[in-house]
Specification:
The structure holds two protein chains of two kinds. By secondary structure, chain A is mainly alpha-helical. Chain A is built from twelve helices and two strands; from the N terminus they run H-H-H-E-E-H-H-H-H-H-H-H-H-H. Chain A has a two-stranded antiparallel ribbon. Chain B starts with a helix and ends in a 9-residue tail after the last helix. By secondary structure, chain B is an all-alpha fold. Classes of the chains: A mainly alpha, B mainly alpha.
Chain lengths: 342, 172
């Protein structure tokens, strides 16, 4: 009992450290890539190739004065906002398998923290808490821009959760094909062999899934909660220093978590050449594949940010209700027919 | 172990429930409600009713409390006006319904589990498969009827919202 808890604790700690490092270098990656898109160099002053830039940024954020503006009435809720936004993607990572199991001397080490029967639902449930961080932060800022940004977020996140949920239902349904029982556990979804036509059919859902993820993470072109040309910075207007950095962390960590989820659902997670379970090098190479796939999906996020202009708010909602939602319903219906026939 | 965790969770459930009732600030009430739902979900998890617990989180914590907060923020929210209305009929009805519910719980407690009921806390009793099976076979009709009921509620909401702006022309 105690050892299981201890092992989980150690694994969680390592995972959190890796993810925070990943966050730091994701900002570097984004700025470098955006730089290339803009035909400029990007950060190149701190360290070789600007590699120390994230550390310089972190030091700067930590040493900034912690200001709480005088018109903030509710300091507790004001501080709760960034905290909630930051911890939810970290919690969501618990059910994502990152490498094949490793067996040393009869002890099997799993490279996930929990293999829950409800893993997919768990991710949906946990990530919906990110909306609270934004709403509470925007409201407690006692500022109209903040409140407007928060209200936009609430409606955006809730309405894009619908097609997301329906697409997840379709993916769970597809695990039923060829066997008597489906599964919601990410470990099982990953390890069940799929025929090639099922891969193709699932990849068809990837663009829609990816767009809902862009909206759920408030990424460009759906970054309406913080539209700088109409709302200053939306819900984060009144935040500075480390508190602002925590909102940034929340956004980038949820990008990493969503990419990990998409890699697991659509691109075979850690599977790849040489990532054979049961060997000593399997977990290492498996984790490498997982990381490479995540980096590629993250590149898509940055590519979209560099290429697509921000859309208008009514376009955002119309696109969800008139395109994505019907598409996901039809997709789910066809998947259901496939499951019933095959 | 399970008894200890039950009492800890029950303590927090009561604490957060009281927080909903006693908070002066509507925002704190809503947040206490959120915390209460989470504690209840943990209680379900400790009874290995995983599916029920996560659905509790998704539906109540993920959507309904967000909408509560939405409304509270739009109408101000920091100060709740003290209501001095005397709605005796509503109060009597509330007390009566509460008493009936309490009586039902007491009867259930005294009678104990009916014969043949699945014991709570069996490892896989609350998994998705275990919940979905009976729901879509044995209890299909009541399940579908409940969904019709929910649909009616949704349609009612839309009808009420549309009624007020009869003269207003929408863009499309």
């Amino acid at each position: 009992m105690i050892t299981t808890i201890l092992i989980s604790l150690v694994k969680s700690l390592v995972l959190i450290l890796v993810l925070l490092g990943g966050f730091a270098y994701l900002t570097y990656y984004e700025r470098k890539i955006l730089g290339r898109f803009h035909v400029r160099l990007g950060p190149n002053r701190a360290g070789p190739f600007g590699l120390l830039q994230p550390i310089a940024d972190a030091v700067k954020a930590i040493f900034k004065e912690e200001v709480v503006p005088g018109h903030i009435k509710d300091k507790l809720i004001y501080l709760l906002g960034p905290i909630l936004t930051m911890i939810t993607p970290l919690i969501a990572f618990a059910v994502i398998p990152m490498a094949p199991d490793l067996t040393i001397g009869g002890v099997t080490i799993h490279f996930y923290i929990a293999d829950a029967n409800i893993a997919l639902l768990y991710i949906v449930g946990v990530t919906s808490f990110a909306a609270y961080g934004v709403i509470l932060g925007g409201w407690s800022s006692n500022n109209n821009y903040g409140l407007l940004g928060a209200l936009r977020t609430a409606s955006q996140m809730i309405s894009y959760e619908l097609p997301l949920g329906i697409l997840i239902v379709a993916i769970v349904l597809s695990t039923n094909i060829g066997r008597d029982q489906g599964s919601m556990s990410l470990v099982e979804i990953l390890n069940r062999p799929r025929p090639w036509w099922l891969w193709l059919w699932l990849l068809l859902a990837f663009p829609a899934f990816y767009i809902t993820m862009l909206a759920e993470n408030n990424r460009s072109p759906f970054d309406l909660p913080e539209t700088e040309n109409e709302l200053v910075a939306g819900y984060q207007t009144e935040y500075g220093g480390m508190k602002f950095a925590m909102y940034m962390m929340g956004e980038y960590l949820s990008m990493i978590a969503s990419s990990a989820l998409m890699v697991t659902l659509f691109f075979g997670g850690w599977h790849g050449p040489l990532a054979t379970p049961g060997t000593w090098y399997g977990p290492l190479i498996g984790f490498g594949w997982f990381a490479i796939k995540i980096i590629i999906v993250l590149f898509l996020y940055l590519w979209v940010r560099a290429s697509v202009p921000r859309i208008r708010y009514d376009q955002l909602l119309a696109f969800n209700w008139k395109v994505l939602f019907p598409f996901s319903l039809i997709y789910m219906a066809i998947t259901a027919v496939m499951v019933a026939l095959l | 172990m399970s008894l200890i965790s039950f009492f800890i969770l029950a303590f927090f459930a009561l604490l957060t429930a009281l927080g909903v009732l006693l908070s002066r600030n509507a925002i704190y009430s809503a947040l206490s409600l959120l915390a209460h739902f989470l504690v209840i979900a943990l209680l379900y998890f400790s009874l290995s009713a995983q599916f029920l617990g996560i659905v509790q989180v998704i539906v109540y914590a993920g959507a309904i409390v967000v909408l509560f907060l939405f409304v509270i923020m739009l109408i101000g929210g920091t100060i709740t006006p003290v209501i001095h209305e005397k709605r005796n009929a509503a109060r009597i009805a509330a007390v009566a319904l509460g008493a009936v519910f309490l009586l039902g719980l007491l009867i259930a407690l005294v009678k104990g589990l009916p014969a043949g009921a699945t014991p709570v806390g069996a490892p896989d009793a609350g998994s998705v498969q275990a919940v979905a099976g009976p729901l879509y076979t044995t209890y299909l009709l009541p399940f579908e009827l409940a969904s019709v009921l929910l649909l009616t509620g949704m349609l009612g909401g839309i009808v009420l919202a549309l009624k007020e702006r009869k003269g207003v022309r929408t863009k499309d």
